[in-house]
Structure formats: C-alpha cells, structure tokens
Design a protein that fits this description.
This is Major facilitator superfamily (MFS) profile domain-containing protein. The chain is mainly alpha-helical. 78% of the residues lie in helices and 0% in strands. The N and C termini lie close together (10 Å).
Length: 223
C-alpha cells in the first residue's frame, strides 16, 4: 500500500515513457556531440536527469500525467549520454584502448544494477520522509556531485585539460592523429546496408529487452 495508487497499465506506461524519450534524441545526439562538444551535452543531460530524479517524488504526487511527461523528458536527456560518452572517448583513448574504454564505462550499468536494488530496499524501509523518496533524493544528489566533478576535471580534448601530464597529452595526440578518420559526412547508406550494424542492433535489443524486464518488473513481482 502507498499514496500513489497506480494500476499495472499506468506503471508500465511510466516505464515505457523513458524509452519513448530516448528514441526521440538518440539519433541526433551523436552529430550534436561532434558539433558542440560532448562535455556540454553530458553536463546538460545529467543536469536535467538529476533535477528530474530529485524532484520525482514531488512530481509523482502532484499529477500522474505530469510525471509521465517528465519521464519522457528524462528519457530524452538519457538519449544524449551514450553517444556523448563515445564521442568523448574518441578523443581520450588511443585506438588500441577503445575496447577497454567501452568495457570501463559500461561496467557502471552492471554495478548499478547489482547495488541499486540493495540500497533502494534499505531506503524504502526507513521511516524518514516515507522511505521511498529517499532513493530519488540520494541518486539525484549523486548526479549533482557528478556534475561538479565533470565540470572541473573533464574536457573535450586532452589538449584542453590541465590535469594530465605533457607526456600523456603527446601520446594521445600522436596516437589519434596517426589514425584519425573523422569526417563530417555520415555514411547513412553504408550504415543502413551493413549486416554488422543490424547484428549489433539485434544483439543490443535482445540484451536490453531482458534487462528492462528484470530491472523494472522483477521488483513488482517480489512485492
């Protein structure tokens, strides 16, 4: 029992709203990151997400449809994250380190999936502020902390960063310049006719479909 009396279809719509928003921005976020810089897009996206997460308990109690629209906006902001991280990594990792880069930043998904339910269940059991809103306050504040760290320590390119050594800057510049194939023309025809692309799309769809079911609906089942 709780104060938010939403039936199963309403709850499912809220889960789906996040992905509706992501579909609206995922295709344009990569070109925008290349044009305006991935750091700006990341800061903007995480700021929007952190605000929405922090205010989620209040918004949810105010009006269901208001919260539904806000969830779509949340998804739109999330659509900028992965392409922006990939764009940022293309300037910060040598070609031989690209696979390690992908493993490094995607490991956060697995870590959060393993730890967040444990933390969330403990917070739900607390008597402070009804318990469950503490989850949103905690992760919203973590987002704001990340914003501060990113703002001061992250830059689009190694040459703009004051926190790394000259040796590392030279290494990255030489590695990236020797293999640079960046272009402003996106080969859409080659992308949409590539069997490798469709294989990746199918594999990711299958993985995230199962992940979404487990993360979103298993807690409801156990409840």
């Amino acid at each position: 029992q709780g104060t938010l009396l939403w039936d199963s279809p309403m709850q499912s719509s809220l889960f789906s709203a996040l992905y509706y928003g992501g579909l609206a921005t995922i295709f344009i976020s990569g070109p925008l990151a290349d044009r305006f810089g991935p750091k700006k897009l990341l800061l903007g996206a995480i700021f929007v997400i952190s605000c929405i997460v922090f205010l989620a308990p209040t918004l949810a109690k105010t009006n269901y449809w208001l919260y539904f629209v806000i969830r779509i906006m949340h998804g739109m902001a999330e659509g900028f994250i992965v392409p922006s991280v990939n764009a940022l990594g293309s300037f910060w990792f040598a070609p031989i380190e690209k696979s390690s880069m992908a493993a490094l930043y995607t490991s956060g998904v697995q870590i959060s999936a393993a730890t967040s339910p444990i933390i969330g269940s403990r917070l739900c059991g607390m008597k402070i502020l009804e318990g469950w809103p503490l989850i949103f306050y905690l992760f919203g504040m973590m987002g704001f902390l990340w914003l501060l760290l990113c703002f001061f320590f992250v830059s689009d390119r190694p040459t703009e960063n004051r926190w790394i050594s000259h040796e590392e800057k030279n290494f990255l510049e030489n590695s990236l310049n020797s293999t640079s194939t960046r272009t402003t023309v996106i080969p859409w025809k080659s992308i949409f006719t590539s069997t490798e692309v469709y294989a990746c799309v199918f594999a990711n769809f299958s993985m995230y479909f199962c992940t979404a079911i487990v993360l979103n609906f298993i807690p409801l089942y156990f409840k």
